[in-house]
Specification:
- The complex is a heterodimer of chains A (990) and B (501).
- Chain A is of the alpha+beta class and 990 residues long.
- Chain A has 35 helices and 16 strands.
- The radius of gyration of chain B is 25 Å and the shape is globular.
- The chains are: A alpha+beta (990), B alpha/beta (501).
Chain lengths: 990, 501
């Protein structure tokens, strides 16, 4: 076939297909199609073939011919669009064609448009409506011909409310009271009671902490603990229990430091953005990970409040949404000027009391020691005077203490190494630079000196001719001088000690005279290469020299690898111990004694006492030791964000690389949204940003935040892509309802509790969650809300429920994180085994799951197994998997076994006539309703089976119960309790 | 033992369901819903919410697959390529000399002080092995005997040069958090062939790695695809054992009761998730038998055990503190053998993690220790797989996050230069089986192992080619998250046809 015809033909066929009736809905039908199939190459980022399909003007230009329709229908691989992946379906082509025929009208993306203010729709069955939410739902259900589900029964409703609002199970008594309460206000009263419970704050704080990526450690390789992190968690719990309005909640967390007269609490709130990871791995570039943290702050803010996937624009213009890369960095600039700082939290009184007591005790010790020292000092005053006289005298006479050698000659043990002697006996080394050990032998004759010689001075000299300026010959300039031997007229000299102006760690000058000559021994100077150094070697006995005696000095260098001296000089020293006291003391000693003032004398006295005099030195060491053991005043340094005093310049970073700054940008919001208004329009800051987010003009946050609330109570968002309200996100089934909720949230003064109250009072919420077979095809995912949803509760709540049913759960709210039992090798999975998990005892073993210490590189498996987010990035919706590991955890994990044992005890203590009643009671505790007879039968059977077995195996009964004696009856109940705690109905909301 | 009313038997789901239906649901009008029943009886439908929708059901690859399973031996910490697989005699010539500034100018180092850094020679002896003449240093004499089965790649490069981001890059294709690792992607793409073991198993030896548990995370994919850690002490899988004093027969009886009562609730609610829950508990029960059977090596021959070095002593000169985590060599041997047993049982992806190769100092001693730990068992694994005919469709990968510098590490304050720094510009990796060519050395680095001269391979390329062996087009295996279709290969990656046999 003519290749041209091959693509015209199908086009012709499609072109003449009849158009389906009705106007095309751009937002619902066209934009998602374009976003899915076209925008990656023809959108805000790339415009291949100069085609752009995300705005009206350029699209109309492109539609002037038929090319678009031709391209999407042709089979010609050269022509077809999209070039890869599945083609557009017939229906899609027809819709697109109809849209073009209707004039290809664009509408602004629904999520950026102002909130719809139309009144809620009218419905036929007014009697079902509890509040406006139900009008939106019912109108749609009526249109689809679906009747809403009946209201859930009362025991389901109370369980649902308890799970949703507090994450705890209702007691049978509470269930009875509610079920039997004839008042029409019973439901409202229950809701109010639960919202007033302090456990409400815990339950909903945990939802927020997912978004805040809260954790108790730094993350990355080192993953150091953050022992004070919990103060932020406590702040969130408090804020929720006090029902801090969402706008204030936003302001304090994003910009608490910038609020006028910021309180301690408002500073703590900024730790929201200190939950970013910190990389303290060796050799990291601080700026790289600072930038990384600011990226995270930018993107997390974008996700939580705007529902925008900002992160795409970190490296390039967003491919689907109208967010330019420059706009990303404008938002980035807001956070780029918040620095990570610490502030000291008030110390708990308990800790201060302990501290004060310890301090008092310590001060008493110090006082006693000071008295002893004073006494000792008085006793040794005489010896101090004598020492001073001796030292000052010698210092006076030692003004020019170093003397050049005469007729110096030098040779090396390797004859290819050339040693040349210059003026003042300076030896320059040249020639070969061997790998192995190398010794230098320096010989000289002496001249008469008036004073006795007390030692040798060896200068290691730098020089521009040496690698890295020397003094060594190896590339980096270091050297290792292993040992120095000297003799006078053939008689070996003995050393008393050696010191140097500088010694490398572990390579002290004293090793020059320690008689050891192995490779790992000697004097070296890294990292102070490239400059002069000297060592002083003291003689055991001072020598009186006469003219013409032969001195030879052997410099032994056994290290090899070219670590030999490149330039040096040897001189004689006269006078006493010159240079072996700290410089400040030397300076004082060089002064004539008469000129020393009292302060200087005191300094010398201290020095003598502390370092020279033996008894004094011991006392001094004792004082130092005591000083070090002084109790430290407890501080609780807490990481917060504070505004930089001098602004940091923000640049667009090419490909998101911190090393590639491009044009400069300054703070601004995304252009698709209303402008950010600043207190100082020249320089917008985080407070402006936070106010802008919650301002009446900004349509995204109310939608996004209301959607997040809906999701927690209905299992899915109205927009199911909770983190993407962009053009690739889901178009909501109920856009008007979402807008109503957003408007209402604001109208309610951003009160979370008020919005929750509204949501749970709707008939929609109160429906039964029984799956309806007749809707399986019409609405398989329950998008119309013809019933409620049922879903498994979160990781923490699963545990809370079981502990609560067992009667073990601690009701304590807030405080430092706890360490419920975990196998030790799990903590060791983290790098360098640098972390010990010490299991909490007592009450802290049974605190709510949200208080479990969260170590980012080895989180508690009981959390992760049940889809707890890893807290490395923000999480607005948890996944809900259903895995065998979860089954194994709830069946066999230590905490669940403890729960089963305690639960069994609890069951046996309850008032009941027989085992059937006990089982009935146990199941009520687990599932918050009266069990059916079949259910009780089944558990009775299990109890019987278990008891028979344990009666035959009493030893095993002791093991299972953990008691000191066999107890087959109790063991059977533990076995039953364990299974009851695994009921699907327990871990699922209904 | 007592004579039981309990019959301990292999669990058969159909019999069980029939049994329970007869016993407890006979009064119910509809019994277990048809939908869920079909779901439960479908062999692969044990984990999911509804038929055809469960996450680990077998899925068809995009095209015919050469590999079915992968054993990824992850050498965390970055082993020195120039001391192991990429001989550079020039290093000894240049030992102690600085490199020209042109090489180091725009390079970041973790610890090296540029001004004074010099080349550090290599104390290893390299030899050619096999018909292919593939080169290995004296550190891996056993692996060297597999030369003709190995595909040696000398030209990998990474974008990350700190450990944790680097390890994420190797596992997830990018050095950032929140992404799924290779093993998760492959299970997501293909499903699991194992009926009673997880599709993705992780085995660790020695100390913890920089990445910790993030190295087997499922990221934005459901946690069903996350790696399951098999432990080398205590029970093989966390929480696998029944509580003390609770016998298997009572476990069965308990799970029977649980299933029956859950079924009653299913009758009421008709939610397929309840059926999934029942299935999960049954799989857990089967794992309780399968996992201990897996780690029970008593049926392995003495020859096999010896080949892997199961009973060998820990080599001397181990890093301080290592002894605390038990005998590392034996643990690694065991993990290699377990990897074979896992693959035999249909496990899709096995990750053996061994840390650390981060030899900033004492490299000669430390790399020798590590090599001794891993050399013999890895060679044994490759040969064992080959002998059993498993190597054809099992891909063994040996690799890490990056390599090490030809420059010695002159970290400030340290007395001597005895180690090498991080080096992402080139490093080596080898693979065996899975439809890759044996005896091929691919890619070439320069004289000193600093940069790549021929055939550079990005980590995305490696992933693309790996997926290709599993019949997966790396551009087609995507997951929509935050409006974007994510891939293991992010926005890059190309299949390298030269590797494929």
């Amino acid at each position: 076939m003519n290749p041209r015809l091959s693509w015209i033909l199908p086009f012709l066929i499609y072109y003449f297909l009849p158009v389906q009736g009705g106007d095309v809905d751009f937002s619902a039908q066209i934009r998602p199609l374009l976003a899915e199939k076209c925008l990656e190459c023809h959108g805000p980022d790339k415009q291949k073939g100069d085609l752009r399909l995300d705005d009206s003007e350029s699209t109309h230009r492109a539609l002037s011919g038929d090319e678009l329709l031709v391209r999407i229908t042709t089979d010609d691989p050269e022509m077809r669009m999209p070039p890869k992946g599945p083609r557009l379906g017939e229906k899609e082509v027809a819709t697109l064609r109809q849209w073009i025929a209707e004039g290809a009208r664009f509408e602004p993306h629904w999520a950026y448009a102002p909130l719809n203010q139309d009144p809620p729709p009218t419905v036929k069955h007014e009697e079902w409506v509890q509040n406006p939410i139900d009008r939106y739902i019912l109108a749609r259900l009526e249109k689809e011909g679906i009747a809403p589900s009946p209201a859930a029964n009362r025991s389901t409703l109370i369980k649902r409310l308890y799970y949703d609002l507090t994450g705890l199970p209702p007691s049978p008594e509470e269930v009875d009271a509610f079920v039997n309460n004839p008042s029409s206000q019973a439901y409202s009263e229950l809701v109010d009671k639960l919202l007033a419970s302090p456990h409400y704050g815990e339950r909903w704080a945990r939802h927020w902490l997912d978004k805040a990526r809260y954790a108790d450690s730094d993350g990355y390789e080192k993953d150091n603990p953050r022992p004070q992190a919990w103060h932020y968690r406590d702040w969130v719990i408090r804020a929720l229990n006090e029902d801090m309005p969402m706008d204030q909640f936003t302001l304090e967390q994003l910009a608490g430091d910038l609020l006028p007269g910021a309180t301690s609490d408002q500073k703590i709130a900024t730790a929201f953005h200190r939950q970013t990871l910190t990389n303290t791995e060796g050799g990291t570039d601080k700026e790289e990970f600072r930038t990384e943290a600011v990226f995270d702050r930018t993107e997390t803010t974008g996700t939580i409040w705007l529902g925008l996937t900002m992160n795409c624009a970190r490296c390039h213009n967003h491919k689907y949404d109208s967010i330019l890369q420059a706009e990303y960095y404008q938002l980035f600039d807001f956070f780029n000027n918040g620095d990570e700082t610490n502030f000291n939290l008030p110390v708990p009184e308990e800790a201060m009391v302990t501290y004060r007591a310890a301090k008092e005790k310590h001060e008493a010790k110090e006082k006693a020691l000071a008295l002893r020292i004073e006494k000792a000092q008085n006793e040794v005053e005489g010896s101090f005077k004598a020492w001073l006289a001796d030292r000052s005298a010698s210092a006076e006479g030692a003004a020019s203490a170093f003397h050049d050698l005469q007729k110096t000659a030098a040779i090396a043990s390797d004859t290819d190494v050339a040693l040349s002697v210059a003026a003042q006996g300076i030896v320059q080394v040249g020639g070969a630079n061997p790998e192995g050990p190398l010794h230098y032998l320096v010989t000289a004759t002496t001249s008469t000196l008036t004073q006795p010689v007390t030692g040798l001075r060896i200068d290691a000299l730098s020089d521009s001719s040496l690698p890295a300026m020397g003094p060594g010959r190896v590339a980096h300039g270091n050297f290792v001088l292993t040992e120095v031997e000297a003799s006078l007229d053939g008689k070996s000299l003995e050393w008393a000690g050696a010191m140097a102006d500088f010694s490398q760690d572990g390579w002290e000058a004293s090793q020059l005279v320690d008689g050891k000559q192995d490779v790992k021994n000697g004097w070296a100077v890294a990292p102070q290469m490239g400059r002069d150094h000297y060592a002083i070697l003291k003689l055991k006995t001072p020598l009186v020299l006469s003219e013409g005696q032969n001195l030879s000095v052997k410099l032994i260098q056994n290290y090899g690898q070219q670590h030999a001296l490149g330039k040096f000089r040897i001189r004689l020293m006269t006078g006493h111990h010159q240079g072996d006291q700290p410089e400040a003391i030397e300076n004082l000693l060089s002064k004539p004694q008469k000129k020393l003032d009292e302060k200087e004398m005191a300094k010398l006295r201290d020095h003598f006492f502390g370092t020279v005099h033996v008894a004094g030195r011991k006392l001094d060491e004792e004082r130092d030791k005591l000083k070090k053991s002084a109790p430290k005043e407890p501080v609780t340094a807490f990481g917060i964000i504070t505004q930089r005093p001098s602004p940091r310049e923000t640049h667009l970073l090419e490909r998101g690389n911190f090393l590639s700054p491009a044009e400069r940008v300054s703070a601004a919001g995304p252009s698709v949204l209303p402008q950010v208004q600043g207190r100082n329009p020249e320089r917008l800051d985080r407070l402006d940003l936070a106010r802008w987010l919650m301002s009446p003009e900004n349509p995204l946050p109310p939608r996004v935040l209301a959607n997040q609330m809906w999701e927690k109570l209905f299992g899915h968002g109205l927009v199911r892509t909770l983190n993407d309200f962009g053009v690739r996100g889901e178009v909501p089934e109920y856009p008007e309802l979402l807008d109503w909720l957003g408007t209402e949230y604001r109208r309610l003064g951003w009160s979370r509790k008020a919005l929750i109250r509204t949501l749970v009072h709707s008939a929609t919420y109160q429906q039964a969650s029984v799956h309806r077979e007749e809707l399986a095809e019409l609405d398989p995912e329950n998008r119309f809300y013809g019933r409620q949803n049922r879903f498994r509760v979160e990781a923490e709540i699963t545990r809370d429920l079981c502990l609560s049913i067992a009667g073990l759960l601690s009701p304590k709210i807030g405080g430092p994180s706890v360490f419920p039992p975990m196998p030790p090798e799990i903590a060791a999975l983290s790098y360098a085994n640098n972390f010990k998990w010490v299991n909490s005892q007592g009450e802290n073993r049974y605190r709510r799951g949200m208080y479990t210490f969260f170590k980012r590189t080895s989180p508690h498996p009981n959390l992760i197994t049940f889809d707890c987010p890893d807290s490395n990035t923000t999480n607005v919706k948890r996944s809900t998997s259903n895995t065998p590991l979860q089954a194994l955890t709830m069946l066999n994990n230590e905490v669940y076994i403890e729960a089963a044992r305690a639960f069994a005890d609890r069951i046996l203590k309850c008032e009941a006539e027989d085992d059937r009643q006990r089982i009935h009671h146990a199941l009520r505790l687990c599932i918050a309703r009266h069990p059916g007879a079949t259910e009780v039968d089944r558990f009775s059977h299990l109890l019987k089976e278990s008891r028979e077995w344990f009666e035959k195996n009493p030893q095993a009964s002791q093991e299972l119960t953990g008691k000191s004696e066999p107890d087959p009856r109790l063991a059977a109940w533990v076995a039953v309790a364990r299974i009851a705690l695994n009921l699907d109905e327990l871990m699922t909301r209904e | 033992m007592n004579k039981k009313p309990f019959i301990h038997r292999d669990f058969d789901l159909e019999t069980e369901l029939n049994h329970s239906r007869r016993s407890f649901l006979s009064t119910s009008a509809s019994g277990l819903g048809g939908l869920a029943l079909a779901n439960l009886l479908q062999r692969d439908g044990l984990l999911g919410a509804s038929p055809g929708n469960h996450p680990l059901a077998l899925k068809k690859p995009h095209f015919e697959a050469k590999a079915k399973s992968c054993i990824f031996i992850f050498m965390a910490g970055a082993p020195s390529h120039i001391d192991l697989f990429d001989p550079k005699p020039k290093l000894n010539e240049l030992d102690g000399q600085p490199l020209p500034e042109s090489l180091t100018k725009n390079v970041r180092f973790a610890f090296i002080k540029k001004e004074t850094a010099t080349v550090m020679g290599c104390n290893r002896i390299f030899k050619k092995h096999g018909e292919s003449g593939m080169e290995f240093s004296d550190l891996t004499p056993h692996i060297a005997t597999c030369a003709d089965d190995l595909l040696m790649i000398r030209s990998l490069h990474s974008e990350q040069f700190n450990h944790h981001p680097g390890q994420l890059m190797m596992q997830c294709g990018r050095g950032v958090f929140g992404l799924p690792v290779m093993g998760s992607w492959i299970n997501y793409g293909l499903g699991s062939e194992s009926e009673n073991l997880p599709g993705y198993v992780v085995l660790t030896s020695g100390r913890g790695s920089s990445g910790g548990t993030t190295l087997w995370q499922s990221g934005f994919l459901p946690s069903t695809y996350a790696g399951v850690l098999f432990r080398d002490q205590g029970e093989p899988v966390l929480n696998l054992s029944n509580p003390p004093g609770l016998p298997p027969e009572l476990q069965r009886a308990g799970l029977d009761a649980l299933r029956d009562v859950n079924q009653i609730h299913y009758e009421r609610m008709r939610d397929g998730e309840i059926a999934s829950r029942i299935a999960s508990y049954e799989l857990a029960y089967r794992m309780q038998t399968a996992a201990p059977e897996l780690i029970d090596l008593s049926k392995e021959s003495k020859a096999t055990l010896d080949a892997y070095g199961i009973d060998r002593p820990d080599p001397p000169n181990g890093e301080r503190g290592r002894a605390a985590s038990g005998n590392t060599a034996q643990s690694f041997s065991r993990n290699c053998l377990l990897a074979r047993r896992l693959v035999e049982r249909g496990v899709r992806f096995v990750n053996i993690i061994y840390a650390s190769w981060d030899h900033h100092s004492n490299i000669d001693k430390e790399i020798a220790y590590n090599s001794t730990v891993v050399d013999q068992p890895i060679a044994a694994l490759i040969k064992d797989l080959k002998e059993r005919g498993l190597l054809d469709d099992t891909l063994v990968v040996w690799g890490s996050e990056f390599g090490r510098t030809p420059l010695g590490e002159n970290r400030g304050g340290s007395s001597k230069v005895t180690g090498r720094d991080h080096h992402p510009f080139c490093f080596s990796m080898f693979m065996a089986g899975g439809g890759f060519k044996g005896g091929l050395t691919y890619g070439k680095t320069d004289d000193i192992g600093w940069g790549i001269e021929e055939n550079p391979v990005s980590i995305n390329d490696f992933h693309a080619t790996l997926l290709h062996q599993f019949g997966i087009d790396h551009e087609q295996l995507t997951y929509r998250f935050q409006g974007r279709d994510f891939r293991l290969t992010d926005v890059a990656g190309r299949v390298i046809p030269q590797w494929i046999a």
